[in-house]
């Protein structure tokens, strides 16, 4: 059994976070909730990559990969949001109000 | 002691992630998700990944949160579902499935924790002097794996194109924020935003920072300025916007292709001007990222204001 360090702890957290995200992705109905769940999965994978790849000194390669990944995830989220809004355009309430 | 802090952080992250998916209203879910982003930025700091912490706080939590809020204003309220009564044998089946899935996950986790790789840190540090740049992460992003970063910019550009194509055509300024003190405050703060963005851009050469956090700060400044009544041409269809948005990817691609003419390999910077080229790329990319993020936000938001 590996010693309990911050890296081990965050690796474990990443696995649990991915579980939460995957569960949300399949068990929620609203598209925005699914998008949030997907984003949690993505963050979990980043955390797993960096936390499990950290041995002593810092390795810049996973860091650069995660930085790239964050931007790609943001772009994906932006496109997904505009698709969700587009799909719901006809179902807006008539007063166009801010009902959350 | 540090481990106790990490454990509390991990617990808070798990709780917020759960809330981010299952909170009662969408608004609560989005706020929880943004908080989750900020906490994960703290986790990055704990893992010595300050670069990622900056990007996560600025992009993962800030910009994504702004986009989500813009979407919330345009979505109909979530229909309240009657709680379905699940039959006991279905619950039992779900539990069995969960246990079946848990075994390979635990096995994989065990395998990951046993990994003995030493990573590429030593190699990167050994060739850092050839890259003419101080920060290892920036060296990987702009030199060793520059093509990844170019493609990343192209992905972002494609996202802007898609979002613009889906948006409404009617442009409009946004005079709907009823906050009288906001314009004055923005006038005061906007130079600070510009200064911070410039600092982050410069800092990227030798430490955490770089084009992406700088672009996010720049975009935050623009969004604030436009929300408080600064007049800007509607993003889509305006030539200036298009040029500014393409500036980063274009400059990057031109450098990558230009060195071919000088007899080097694709993306091989001539040693004498390598530092200068990378600073140029970083500045162009930072400006473009700022404008792209602003465009993404207003493509989401404009539709709302034009219809209300």
Structure characterization notes:
Chain A contains 3 helices and no strands. Chain A is mostly helical and 100 residues long. Chain A has one domain: Helix Hairpins (Orthogonal Bundle). Chain A is elongated. By secondary structure, chain B is mainly α. Chain B has a domain at 132-308. Helix content of chain B is 74%, strand content 0%. In chain B, α2 (26-46) packs antiparallel against α3 (50-72) and α10 (211-227) runs parallel beside α12. The longest helix of chain B is centred in the C-terminal third of the chain and has 34 residues, at 274-307. Chain B starts with a helix and ends with a helix. Classes of the chains: A mainly alpha (100), B mainly alpha (308). At the A-B interface, α1, α2 and α3 of A face α1, α2, α3, α4 and α7 of B.
SSE string of chain A, helices as H and strands as E? HHH
Oligomer: heterodimer
Our estimate of the beta-strand percent of chain A is: under 5%
Q: Structural class, judged by helices and strands of chain B?
A: mainly alpha
Mean pLDDT of chain B: 82
Treating each run of at least 4 consecutive H or I residues as one helix, how many helices of chain B? 12
Average pLDDT of chain A works out at 83
Total separate domains of chain A: 1
Instruction: Let me know the number of strands of chain A.
Output: 0
The termini of chain A sit apart by 47 Å
Net shape of chain B: globular
The major β-sheet of chain B equals: none
Structural class of chain A: mainly alpha
Q: How many β-strand runs of chain B? A: 0
What Rg of chain B is obtained from the alpha carbons, in whole angstroms? 23 Å
Number of helices of chain A: 3
Order of helices and strands of chain B: HHHHHHHHHHHH
Proportion of residues in β-strands of chain B: under 5%
Radius of gyration of chain A: 18 Å
**Gap from first CA to last CA of chain B:** 53 Å
């Amino acid at each position: 059994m590996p010693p309990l360090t911050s890296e081990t702890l965050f690796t474990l957290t990443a696995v649990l976070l991915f579980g939460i995200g995957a569960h949300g992705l399949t068990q929620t109905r609203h598209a925005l909730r699914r998008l949030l769940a997907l984003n949690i999965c993505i963050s979990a994978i980043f955390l797993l990559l960096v936390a499990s790849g950290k041995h002593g000194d810092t390795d810049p390669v996973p860091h650069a990969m995660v930085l790239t990944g964050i931007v790609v995830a943001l772009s994906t989220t932006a496109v997904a949001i505009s698709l969700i809004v587009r799909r719901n355009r006809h179902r807006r309430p008539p007063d166009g109000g801010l009902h959350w | 002691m540090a481990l106790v802090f990490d454990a509390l952080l991990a617990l808070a992250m798990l709780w917020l992630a759960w809330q981010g998916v299952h909170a009662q209203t969408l608004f609560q879910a989005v706020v929880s998700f943004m908080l989750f982003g900020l906490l994960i930025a703290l986790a990055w700091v704990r893992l010595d990944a300050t670069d990622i912490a900056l990007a996560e706080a600025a992009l993962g939590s800030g910009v994504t949160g702004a986009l989500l809020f813009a979407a919330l204003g345009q979505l109909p309220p979530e229909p309240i579902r009657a709680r379905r009564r699940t039959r006991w044998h279905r619950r039992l089946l779900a539990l069995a499935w969960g246990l079946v899935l848990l075994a390979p996950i635990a096995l994989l986790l065990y395998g990951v924790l046993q990994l003995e790789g030493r990573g590429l840190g030593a190699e990167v540090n050994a060739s850092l002097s050839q890259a003419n740049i101080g920060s290892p992460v920036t060296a990987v992003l702009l030199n060793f794996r520059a093509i990844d970063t170019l493609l990343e910019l192209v992905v972002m550009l494609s996202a802007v194109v898609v979002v613009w194509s889906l948006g409404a055509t009617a442009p409009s300024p946004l005079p709907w924020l009823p906050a009288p003190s906001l314009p004055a405050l923005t006038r005061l703060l906007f130079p600070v935003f510009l200064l911070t963005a410039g600092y982050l851009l410069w800092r990227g050469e030798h430490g955490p920072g770089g084009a992406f956090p700088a672009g996010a700060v720049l975009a935050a400044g623009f969004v604030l300025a436009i929300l408080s009544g600064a007049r800007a041409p509607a993003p889509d269809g305006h030539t200036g916007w298009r040029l500014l948005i393409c500036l980063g990817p274009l400059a990057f691609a031109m450098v990558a292709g230009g060195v071919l003419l000088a007899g080097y390999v694709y993306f091989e910077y001539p040693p004498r001007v390598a530092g200068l080229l990378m600073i140029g790329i970083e500045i162009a990319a930072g400006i473009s990222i700022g404008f792209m993020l602003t465009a993404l936000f207003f493509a989401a938001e404009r539709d709302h204001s034009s219809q209300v």
